[in-house]
Specification:
about 35% helix, alpha+beta, Aminopeptidase, seven-stranded mixed sheet, single chain
Length: about 180
């Protein structure tokens, strides 16, 4: 897998991936991302601004197919994080989207994000998660995140999680190459 900084030409791909994820979530009964927050225009502009700032990455396979995307920055939303938390060295994960054909890649991307944040002197990676998406809460906890608190307001992503950057990576599922290698050992 190749992780590279997104360019503005990747914006349509990021938006398409968000739509794909929203549709899949709806199929399993989760309403996350069905309505852009707070508006479609604001969501597109936030995504574009993150790309222009060099804070969005595309994860591609060796043939150039996009498998995932992640945004990682230092913006701590004051609606969500306390003054003390905002003063701590941390980076924040946004818009981690893994295409369905690449299930399992998210763990590796989160490990990459934690290592990147740690190399830049941060103690934490943090994320705000859709408040009522309990399977996603469990996913982050399986990936080394601790639940900080859940805020109930009009903002839909009020479940807050954090993970120290200075811990061993969470093991991900084996890659196809690792599975093949284990069969030949």
């Amino acid at each position: 897998m190749i992780i590279e900084t997104a360019s503005i030409t990747d914006l349509p791909v990021v938006l398409a991936m968000r739509t794909e994820a929203s549709e899949w979530l709806a199929e399993i009964g989760i309403n996350q991302w069905r309505q852009p927050w707070p508006t479609h225009e604001a969501m597109v502009e936030r995504s574009a601004a993150s790309i222009r700032a060099g804070e969005t990455w595309m994860v591609r396979d060796n043939e150039g197919a996009t498998a995932a995307t992640i945004t990682l920055d230092t913006y701590a939303d004051p609606q969500l994080w306390t003054t003390r938390e905002r003063a701590e060295p941390a980076m924040y994960v946004h818009r981690l989207i893994v295409r369905r054909g690449w299930t399992g890649l998210g763990t590796r991307i989160l490990n990459w994000a934690a290592a990147k944040a740690g190399r830049q002197g941060n103690d934490w990676i943090r994320i705000d998660v859709w408040t009522d998406n309990k399977p996603l809460h469990n996913y982050y906890q399986r990936n080394g995140f601790e639940h900080v608190r859940t805020l109930h307001s009009d903002y839909p992503s009020g479940a807050l999680f954090q993970r120290p950057t200075k811990v061993a990576p969470v093991p991900g599922p084996p890659t196809l190459a690792e599975q093949v290698q284990s069969l030949t050992d």
